[in-house]
Amino acid sequence: MNKFKTSAIEILKREKKPLHYKEITRLALEAGILETEGATPEASMNSQIVTDIKNKKEASDFIRTAPGTFTINPDKKELRQNQKIKEKEQEEEKKIAVEGSFTGKAGEHLVCSELLFRGFNASIMSVDVGIDIAAVKENKFFGIQIKTAHKNRFNTYAFHVRSSSFERHNQGNIFYIFVLREGGKNNFLILPSSEVERKIKEGAIFSVNKQTGYALNIKIRDGKVYLGNMEHEMNYFLDNWSIIK
């Protein structure tokens, strides 16, 4: 089952009441259980739930209680194996994956060009081993992990980092660059791995998905950047490329 449906099930079971798909999406993003780099997570959530109900009918995990509003199906029937349903689900999952792949790869190329303009000998890694870009400047090596997200309807940028990747590459020369995309404008929150580790300990970055990953919610309010809640102001790290040294 794809991440939109699994996160919707978790939220609806937790809340124990019907919710509009926009509210399901908001709660899933805030809880860090929905991983998406797409620009329209609410539309994707609605589409996934509606498609599940349409294809599986009484065997769906969901029922519609009002326009755009859903809850857990209390009388879920056993689903008979159906190749057409399986193919439709795979097609929907592929669409979501492709959208995220375009966004992620665009972010890597964007950051790589910014580094080149700043005198780094930078290149995108051919194989993803937790480092997206290798960069060298003045004979010093830097490993850079890139995460890209569009601003969602809640004026928040939602990111996920695999815990295994972070633990494997938590060193002094490793940096995380979070690309904050709004329309045609891009900003960059540039964090050394030591700062990421510190924010994990402070609770601004929290563990999700049975501790297999970390969730980050970045907000821009009144010209200031916050990580998690409003207690963690991060303006120093916004577009500050001089940190990489």
From TrEMBL:
Signal peptide start and end residues: none
Keyword annotations from UniProtKB, A to Z: Transcription
Residue intervals of the HTH HARE-type domain: 2-75
Pfam families per record: HARE-HTH (PF05066)
GO biological process: regulation of DNA-templated transcription
GO molecular function: nucleic acid binding
UniProt-listed InterPro entries: Asxl_HARE-HTH, tRNA_endonuc-like_dom_sf
Protein name: HTH HARE-type domain-containing protein
